[in-house]
Known about the structure:
The protein has helices spanning about 15-25, 35-65, 75-95, 105-120, 130-140, 145-150, and strands at about 1-5, 10. The protein is mainly alpha-helical and about 180 residues long. It has 2 domains: about 1-30, no CATH class; about 35-160, Glutathione S-transferase Yfyf (Class Pi), Chain A, domain 2. The model has no long low-confidence stretch (mean pLDDT about 95).
Amino acid sequence: MLRDGARNSTVAEATIVIEYLDAFHPGPTRFLPAEPDLTWRTRMWDRVFDHYIHEPMQKVVVDRIRPEGKRDAHGVEQAKDQLREAYVLLDREIGTRTWAMGEDFSLVDCAAAPALSYATTLIPFEASHRNLPGYLDRLIARPSFARVLREAEPYFKFYPNETKPRTTPTGIAAKR
């Protein structure tokens, strides 16, 4: 949630907050490109990360904190399969670009950072994923996201998984 007293507006949902800030309080980074064709693609890939990485990751995590007898093993396997399929799609789509949509950091990268950080603790990248590991490294190294990770680190102990999100890049080549 964002409360903008100057505009008497309350804005909910992360993607909409980012779009709102980009429109009414722009900074040096523009999160939505000005070019209409790239704008719709940016919004679409933001949704892809939310629906095909973040959502199945949450399915697996939430299942781990359910009481015995209330777990959904079949749903968890479906979610893990969905993550694997999405990795293949995203690895191909991002290719060797610096950021998801090109050379400029965008709304898509804001969605990708937390989604991939947590998803890879459950389903790590495979050797066949030639681009996603470097992309995640670039996200983790970005100062704004590095700050988020540092500030979140004390809470990782509550994350119901042995592997916690990485807070430092692995050193995988930025571009292959």
